[in-house]
Amino acid sequence: MTIFDEINKILSALKKVGNEETDKFLSLKDSNSFVLQINGEQLAEINEKSILMVGNDVTTSIFPANSTNVSDTIDVDNIKNFFDALDDSLVRLNHLGISYSCVSIKDELVKIKKILLGTSFKLYEETSDSPHQKWFFIGNLERWENPLFEIVLTQSKTTLCSEWIPHFQIDLDTKLSIEELESLTRNHFRKGFIDWKLDLPNYGVVLGMGKLSDINGTKIYLGLGTDKRNTKLHREEILREV
After folding, report:
1. CATH of 58-241, one of 1.20.1440, 3.30.70, 3.10.180, 3.40.1620
2. Could you tell me the strand order of the sheet in which 26-30 lies?
3. Torsion of Cα atoms, 80 then 86 then 87 then 90, to 10°
4. Computed from CA positions of residues 162, 163, 169, 173, in that sequence, does the dihedral angle turn out positive or negative?
């Protein structure tokens, strides 16, 4: 089992839900390859041996040099049953993304901007709480519903391998409350699956995240936006073009 096998079986289960807002952007290129595209332009591709971001191979960025060789995989039936249960409560694919460490965030941004030259995609930033970790998104926001590709960069002189770094992320918008999502994930995955929440003061939880897999140190996380999440606001007022 490879990280690519895991991602592809999760995306395959997601596609079977038949959500219109997801299906128009996420397509099966062949039996072992998924493509995320906006207006026919490729934003990301996950195939049997690599992860591409706007045509650029970022596979090595999310594989730690000091691999732990400890694997924790999700049962394919569990993920299928979870998406089946989510069904009409799924609104859209919010984004796919990766998280990894780098020596210099500034230098990494220079590389990313070069990748975007000649495309319709732009680079956006969401303010983070740490000067050593930055949250970026690549996409086309002419239509706010368009999915994005997130890049979470953590600055470090050495390659980090922790509970959250490096990882691949699948993030969905739903119509459910955090309590309903916790119940659903408890039934299909495990108690305490959602182990991180974005809880906004005087408003509530807008996002919960839990780990689906750990393949040799590279994690796969599932993000679940709640009924309190305002994706339109996030796209139009929170993200800032870099």
Report:
1. 3.10.180
2. 26-30, 33-38, 41-46, 51-53, 56-57
3. -120
4. negative
pTM metric for this prediction: 0.95
The number of residues in the chain equals: 242
Residue 10: exposure state from Cβ atoms within 10 A (0-12, 13-18, ≥19)? buried
Spans of the chain below 70 pLDDT: 65-70
In the chain, alpha helices (H): 3-15, 20-23, 76-86, 105-116, 178-188, 231-233
Q: Parse the chain into domains and list their residue ranges.
A: 58-241
Q: Is the Cβ–Cβ distance between 123 and 209 less than 8 Å?
A: no
| In contact, 2 and 9? CB cutoff 8 Å | no
pLDDT reported for residue 70: 60
Q: 3-state class of 73 per DSSP? A: coil
